[in-house]
Model the fold of this input.
Amino acid sequence: MSVSQSGRASGPLDTFPRLLLNHAATRGDRPATREKYLGIWQTWNWSQVAEEVRAMACGLAELGFKRGDNLALIGDNRPRLYWAMCAAQMLGGVPVPLYQDAVATEMAFVLTDGEIRFAIVEDQEQVDKMLEIKDQCPSLQHILYDDPRGMRHYTQTYLQGLDEVIAMGKVHDRNQPDFIVGEIANGRPEDVAVMLYTSGTTGKPKGVCQTHETFIAAAQSGVGFDHLTDQEDILSYLPMAWVGDHLFSYAQALVAGFTINCPESGDTVMTDLREIGPTYYFAPPRVFENLLTTVMIRMEDAGALKRNMFHYFMAVAKRCGSDILDGKSTVSSTDRLLYALGNLMIYGPLRNVLGMSRIRVAYTAGAAIGPDLFRFYRSIGVNLKQLYGATETCAAVCLQPDREIKFDSVGKPAPGVEVKIADNGEVLVRGKLLLKEYYKRPKDTAEAIDAEGWFHTGDAGFFDEDGHLKIIDRAKDVGKLSNGAIFAPNYIENKLKFFPHIKEAVCFGHDRDMVCAFINIDMGAVGNWAERRGLPYSGYTDLAGKKEVLDLVRECVEQVNAELSHDAMVAETQIHRFLVLHKELDPDDDELTRTRKVRRGFISEKYNVLIDALYSGKTSQFIETQVKFEDGRTGKVAADLAILEVKTYPTMKKAA
Done:
């Protein structure tokens, strides 16, 4: 492998810096990155990105960054943060993205555990977090910031603007043009390319070390599978610390050469989504849930004629939309005509409002998506598919082939990936995409990957007759009721969260005689519902305790029970009692991970008094809970929570 003086790679494209140089040479004037700033989209082509990354790498080297060093990246999706990943890789270093909404103490753990010497952060807010915990992070020596607003009066010598570092790097590159060429040439595909920390649902997060070879293999697999080209557009708005964003917005973009688009802010994502009109889209189920909730709220506010038309054509879409999308010939001519009319009047405008008019392929992953939610998007003509993976597998283990979509499966093993089910029902994975190691945790690495090279995912699942993998739940979460019935809480929770009025749910039942649930209402949806009925409320706690709201939630829970009664495997796990929590479950309160996965063990311990009340027959329970506010202060929220009984339905026996 060699690199020319101009920086062009010759030889195998087996590291991300070499891929970048190849794009700069072969499609240099094509757009590589866009960012919306002050309402205007700024564009950088591949040649410009390569120049910026090279200058940034030289600037880091001038500051002392060297091969083997780890570089923390903290902020929203910003071009320079993505470029900093490649700059670190040019020097043989390892980028370590952190969740930008994490509180300072959470960041301190990763900075210390990952032995971070350099951190590049987005703005003043993130700098302040670094200053708060710097004394706890002895290895942290340099803090570089992208946005200089508000930084004028910061005088710490270890603080520098990224503009200054890049300018310094350009001088370094002019004086030593061979330096960066040699560093890129020294890179090997088996070098660690990125370290992503696990979400930590059951303990402290672990640093997952993935190599250039593994992530490039995973990206190539997905690009080939869905026939992606350099003409794709993707909106990069998910946390950079999440493996899904790293696969779609970094690895696949550098493999295929398509354009990533960074929104102006988290608040403008929907507007920016409509403006860009991505052809390729990725979001976790919670984003699709929130989009659907927004749609349903707007329809409730619409006039009777529009509302009735919407529900009529959505019934048509539910009946035949997915089959039409899959190209099936079983759809009647009448339904095809009605669907075409619905597409003109409802589905097309709806896709446009959602920013999904140009989407060829959309994926969801990160948690199980409810079949009803999945069916909704496919029925309106969005080619939504599921993938299955983990941080330790570069996010891609199974993919759903076009025209082979099943609403309750995650697809078939991706090309080059082996998947099998262990005797205890756990999903095992083997292939090129496995992690190299957990950072400085050889014991954990040995426990995760057995002697035969199988990675133990911790998920329970099975293959159906068509070779599609179905995930039941996390293996540790699947239990049994006292009568022996299988209890899969996530399956039930996803059904509950399909309703726009329910934002989060946590179900209990293992070793107990019935299933009970905590519910979080969706403040936007239920608030809108209450306002249209003239129901006053002062905040979340007040609204969540209203009798009318409790009755609304009970209707949703009873609908879920009716659906469960028709599924023999889970019919006995219908919900008997529930309560609506007095506060929203929050990552800042350690109740959810940063990817919004429920931390069941923590919640069970924290709210043990409420669980006892659900199972002891009480009709109400007082609770006082400490909460953290965004500014770091703490406070308490107290309420008397009503506990409601729910109607259950006779189990529907399957025909012999």
About this structure: The longest strand covers residues 634-645. The chain has a mean pLDDT of 92. Residues 304-325 form the longest helix (22 residues). The domain at 479-645 is CATH 3.30.300.30 (GMP Synthetase; Chain A, domain 3).
